[in-house]
Write a structure and sequence with these properties.
Blueprint lengths: L1 H10 L2 H14 L4 H4 L11 E3 L2 E3 L3 E3 L10 H6 L4 E7 L12 E4 L4 E4 L8 H11 L4 E6 L10 H12 L5 E5 L14 H18 L7 E5 L5 H13 L4 E4 L19 E4 L3 H15 L5 E4 L5 H10 L3 E4 L1 H6 L2 H16 L5 H4 L8
Parallel strand pairs: 3-4, 3-13, 4-7, 7-8, 8-9, 9-10, 10-12, 12-13
Antiparallel strand pairs: 1-2, 5-6, 6-11
Helix pairs in contact: 6-7, 7-8, 8-9, 9-10, 10-12
The structure holds flavin mononucleotide.
């Protein structure tokens, strides 16, 4: 089905196509069934992380459903988890349009959306409504008007709103589209910020605490990534997401290549996998890593898993391949595990580091 729909959507302005599809999915979640067959994952793909059962490792990355309007339809696509956001404490419009560009020859996107979202309170009402449908992560950011030296207050405000309703929380300090945000990735800024957020989460919750993850940029040096990973693990972060979009422009073939913003999709794949590898090595696999960046196929997902990712996320691949991508990856992963003699996905996670 999607091969018929895609040319129509790709003739529309990218953001208009995005809103049209999200509105359709929000109103008619069952319509997904016309575009893809249900996912029935092999039991070998199931794993428990942070006390939550993931039937397979393929989730939806942040930014596609920023406002949590289409979560039921996204679970119908077969994703084993859906990350909503980035959400900021107060609603904000994001950057001026146009701010989303397709690069079809590169199977990539460039975006400078700038955290356009409905604000924490409204998004929380929706997340609350969707609880129980599946694992929902909430990706947290700061408002554009909040200066970096007050950023902690924004993250704390978000944690207060979401810590009782999210299955996991993500601190996003890696979007390139909020001026200065990435400066918060400096160790001397990030460690105290994350420590304070962890303390607030622990103060507000008992027993079942949502794990707190940090999403990192692919544009940090390998050395900085390794140091950050160790420092974050030591203060009790529960997981890392690698990576957000890149400001680098590796060999692109499309006219929009020079648009400012974050590049995602195929050209990001290799670097994002290298970052997963680096983080796994630095942390010795102590905390789960979610691999994000250029996952279009089972081979792409398997590469990230072998490099150290426990889970993977898809965004740009979903735009180019459609909802059938989830089943294709899940089925293909099960075949690759069997081919390589792994009985369970856990055996494949980080296998490259063990020389298997
Ligand atoms: C249009 C667009 C908007 C995005 N918005 C967010 C966001 O709000 N927060 C975030 O953490 N990542 C955001 N991302 C990054 C994705 O979550 C993902 O990490 C990145 O695109 C790499 O994966 P991909 O190559 O599969 O797209 C966005 C990506 C795109 C393409």
């Amino acid at each position: 089905m999607y091969h018929l729909l895609r040319p129509v959507l790709f003739r529309m302005e990218p953001e208009a196509a995005h809103h049209t599809i999200l509105a359709l999915l929000a109103r008619m979640p069952w319509s997904v069934r016309l575009a893809c067959a249900p996912v029935s994952p092999s039991p070998a793909l199931g794993q428990t992380l942070w006390g939550r059962r993931f039937p397979h490792p393929v989730g939806l990355a942040a930014g596609l459903d920023k406002n949590a309007v289409a979560v039921p339809a996204l679970f119908q696509c077969g994703f084993s988890f859906v990350e909503v956001g980035t959400v900021t404490p107060r609603p904000q419009p994001g950057n001026p349009k146009p701010r989303l560009f397709r690069l079809p020859a590169d199977e990539a996107l460039i975006n400078r959306m700038g955290f356009n979202n409905d604000g924490a309170d409204l998004v929380a009402q929706r997340v609350h409504r969707w609880r129980g449908l599946g694992i929902i992560g909430v990706n947290l950011g700061k408002n554009k008007t909040t200066p970096n030296d007050a950023a902690l207050e924004d993250y704390l405000a978000n944690v207060r709103v979401f810590c009782a309703i999210a299955d996991y929380l993500v601190i996003n300090v890696s979007s390139p589209n909020t001026p200065g945000l990435r400066d918060l990735q400096a160790q001397e800024q990030l460690v105290p910020l994350v420590r304070a957020v962890l303390a607030e989460r622990d103060r507000l919750t008992e027993g079942s605490r949502p794990p707190l993850l940090v999403k990192l940029a692919p544009d940090l040096s390998d050395e900085d990534l390794a140091e950050l990973a160790v420092a974050l693990t030591n203060i009790g972060v529960d997981g890392l997401i690698a990576t957000n979009t890149t400001i680098a422009r590796p060999k692109l073939h499309t006219p929009f290549a020079n648009e400012p913003g974050g590049l995602s999709g195929k050209p990001l794949r290799e670097r994002a996998t290298a970052v997963v590898r680096q983080l796994y090595e630095a942390t010795r696999g102590k905390i789960p890593i979610i691999g994000s960046g250029g996952v279009f196929s089972a081979d792409d997902a398997y590469e990230k898993i072998r490099a150290g990712a426990s889970l993977v996320q898809v965004y740009t691949g979903f735009i180019y391949r459609g909802p059938g991508i989830v089943r294709e990856i899940a089925d293909g992963l099960a075949q690759r595990l069997a081919r390589d003699g792994f009985e369970k996905i856990e055996e494949a996670i980080g296998a490259d580091h063990r020389g298997r």
